[in-house]
Design brief:
42% of the residues lie in helices and 4% in strands. The chain has a two-stranded antiparallel ribbon. A two-stranded antiparallel ribbon has the order 3-4. Helix 2 packs antiparallel against helix 7 and helix 5 packs antiparallel against helix 7. The N and C termini lie far apart (44 Å). The chain has one domain. By secondary structure, the protein is mainly alpha-helical. A hairpin with a 2-residue loop joins strand 3 and strand 4.
């Protein structure tokens, strides 16, 4: 009888530990896999070029420093006299080849992703101090519908787009958040 009580107690303790953690192993695994899929977009040069760790954007698939010594500036839109919008309009310029989209600017410095590991990137995306104060709901909305984010799938002639579609990406982000936004 004592052995049965001990076994039942141990099982209940194990069950309560799993319940208190609130995480199902399969769900955690699925969440991590979803993030890895989303990271194919986040870590693509189309996205990384405007998420530099420093004050210089990069460009191209090789992520070389932006030509003409372009700098971040105080508001992430370039220095006075060399604003991003001096060259970049609200849409791709098919004549000059200069890319463009609404709200063209660098991501805030706190959102610099270049050089981060997959895990560090994941953690940064969830941290309001490093994701421009976004809740996870706003983060889903941003990735699913923001026009500047959308540019990654329509970068203009001769440029490789990020994988998939923005609609697919938005669904991946929503499911990742819905499964606990777990990190690898």
């Amino acid at each position: 009888m004592r052995k049965s009580v001990w076994v039942i107690g141990a099982l209940l303790l194990s069950w309560s530990s799993v319940q208190s953690a609130g995480k199902d192993e399969a769900q955690v695994k699925r969440s991590v896999e979803l993030f890895k899929e989303a990271a194919k977009v986040f870590q693509h040069p189309r996205c990384m070029n405007c998420h530099p760790a420093g004050d210089r954007p990069t460009q191209g698939m090789d992520m070389h420093e932006h030509i003409m010594n372009v700098q971040r500036g105080k508001d992430d839109k370039g220095n006075l006299g060399m604003r991003c919008t001096a060259c970049h309009g609200t849409e791709n310029n098919h004549h000059s080849g200069v890319p463009g989209a609404p709200k063209w600017a660098l991501a805030p410095k706190s959102m610099g992703w270049q050089g981060l590991s997959l895990r560090e990137l994941c953690q940064a995306l969830k941290d309001p101090k490093k994701n421009h104060g976004m809740t996870m709901e706003k983060f889903i909305e941003h990735n699913a519908h923001d026009e500047l984010v959308a540019w990654g799938w329509n970068p203009g002639a001769g440029r490789e787009p990020v994988p998939g579609t923005q609609e697919q990406f938005g669904k991946i982000i929503a499911e990742w958040v819905g499964t606990g936004a777990e990190c690898p």
